[in-house]
């Protein structure tokens, strides 16, 4: 009897640990998704600013050539200043590679998504007693090695991305669906019993 209790306690503790790992993976996945969004927003602003300044620079130069501006010396000075800004932003694109950073965070998010889903599958198997505690430990250890490799190569995220992820998970409930929502997404044969009954009664 004592052995059975110990076995049950071992399963409970393992399940608690896996649930904790699932929670960390869920937050990491969503944080890198939000960080990718932030990087993409910065990339778009950077490109728009560069394009705008290039157009203004060209327009001012043409205007000065055509004598459309009152003071050509001021036009030349303004054109030179804008050209300097364009050069500075071009150099900035080599330092702040928002486009590349966007892809890096998306790649990490994709890997962590798979990790998160694997933890969820392990939780289901542990709760349904379809695997032994030893099998659960082996899968946990394998997932921990995968997590170490994934988290180790992940680029740094910001506090802003984490807060966006927190809001998405806690307030907007990004990872949860109501029974009705799931039934609409699933084919009739995989819907809940009540929904299938309504379909069959039509």
Q: How would you describe this protein?
A:
The protein is mostly helical and 202 residues long. It has 2 domains: 170 residues; 25 residues, no CATH class. The protein contains 7 helices and no strands.
Short synopsis of the structure:
The protein is mainly α. It contains seven helices and no strands. It has two domains: 2-171; 178-202, no CATH class.
List the helices and strands and how they pair.
Blueprint: H1 2-65, H2 72-95, H3 98-127, H4 133-152, H5 159-170, H6 179-185, H7 193-201
pLDDT < 50 stretches: 1-5
Number of helices: 7
Net shape: elongated
Structural class assignment: mainly alpha
- Give the terminus-to-terminus CA distance: 52 Å
How confident overall, as mean pLDDT? 79
Strand tally: 0
Strand percentage = under 5%
Number of domains: 2
- The run of helices and strands is HHHHHHH
Please describe the biggest sheet, giving its number of strands, its sense, and whether it closes into a barrel: none
DSSP helix fraction: over 70%
Compute the gyration radius: what is it? 28 Å
Overview features:
mainly alpha; 0% strand; 202 residues
């Amino acid at each position: 009897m004592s052995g059975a209790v110990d076995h049950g306690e071992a399963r409970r503790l393992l399940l608690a640990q896996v649930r904790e790992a699932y929670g960390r993976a869920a937050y990491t996945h969503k944080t890198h998704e939000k960080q990718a969004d932030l990087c993409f927003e910065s990339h778009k602003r950077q490109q728009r600013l560069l394009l705008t300044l290039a157009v203004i620079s060209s327009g001012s130069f043409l205007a000065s050539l055509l004598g459309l501006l009152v003071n050509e010396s001021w036009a030349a000075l303004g054109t030179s200043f804008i050209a300097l800004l364009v050069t500075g932003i071009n150099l900035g694109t080599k330092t702040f590679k928002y486009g590349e950073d966007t892809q890096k965070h998306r790649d990490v998010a994709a890997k962590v998504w798979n990790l998160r889903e694997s933890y969820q599958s392990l939780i289901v198997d542990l709760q349904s007693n379809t695997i032994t505690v030893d099998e659960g430990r082996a899968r946990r250890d394998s997932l921990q090695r995968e997590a170490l490799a994934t988290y180790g190569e992940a680029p740094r995220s910001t506090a802003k991305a984490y807060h966006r992820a927190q809001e998405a998970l806690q307030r907007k409930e990004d990872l949860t669906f109501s029974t009705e929502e799931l039934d609409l997404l699933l084919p009739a044969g995989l819907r809940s019993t009540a929904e299938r009954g309504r379909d069959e009664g039509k």
